[in-house]
Structure prediction request, 385 residues.
Amino acid sequence: MKSWILWTMLTVSGATAIVIAQQTVSVAINGKAANLETVSRNGKVFVDGVAFAKALGASATLTGGKLSVTSGAMMNTQGTAQQAGGAGVLGKSYTLGREKPLNFLLKSAEFQIGRLVIGSDIYAPNKSEKLLLLRATIQNPQKEEAALSSYNFKFTAVDANNENHVHANYLVKDGSTSRISTNLKPAQKIEVVIPIIVPASGTVPKLIVEASNEAGTPVLRYDLSKSIKGLSAPYAAASDQYSAPPTVAAKLGTYYPAKEFDLKLESVMYSTEALEDETLEASERYLIATFSAKNPINTDDNRYLLGLKNDLELTALDADSNISKTLSNWYKVGRAERLKEYPQMSYNQESKFRIAFKVPKDLKLKNIKVSGMLRDFVFDISSAK
Prediction:
């Protein structure tokens, strides 16, 4: 038995069904054709109520002349329904939020090993992490000014193990170190960078973007699996551009990043010269390494070289990976005198110093390893004389 009911429009659980009365009557649900039997009489269209309810994802029963319909939303298991939203596409603009909407357009996503200076803060990964940098355009679609800061949006990166990593409320003006907190005029756009620290290993296939101050509003879900830019040398793993090993093979004469400084190994040599506060046995010699440190951070704050000294751990390794630790003092370049004062360094200022390892005369060292930076950097010093 069928329950013929007259419906011209019905909304159940957010789905809208439109019955189009023509010479040939058809039914469309959310813009898609539905295979439903209809009957036209006296200019009106009747649809089988049970079949129509099921087409809308509901359940329906006809008992004793009574049609009972239970919507699909009421049948969901509590706590399992995905938050409403849609699939985001790079390069396409979407409006997020209802009360204070803003347009969001994701331009690119990439991995990076390095620091990001945000105002007076330094945002940098440790050696078990890497940075995911999102570049986007945000626009005010309203007819009045709209406030914009890092608290307007919530960005969640979902890694390959389905673990969530939420951005640290940093929204940076692209091309600057300025943390954004401003008012956008109607139709005004601004280019932004959103940094998120994620695990060093593996990619981040998913990104969720939502209006953070309006719970329950639709979210954007981006599939980044084919669009995210991987790491470049020397930080990418040999067989996986999305993974960053904790140890990097480094080259003499190249700067590498610590959190607040860049560090470069200039040269290495064996020596029996006298060094202040140190003595050598007849069977010993020094391996002396000359480093340059540079302050790469363009802020009004000076950086103390002593801070770098406290962060670093320098070791030398022979062919069997036996470890020799550096002497506690740093020394001036070209002189036996140890550093007693560690300078304050302004932006782009460089400072050179020497460190020394006391080793047996017949021992040939293979590597210097520098830890305490964004990665452990290992230098090949096997050619040192």
In short: Residues 7-23, 72-81 have pLDDT under 50 and may be disordered. The chain has three helices and 34 strands.
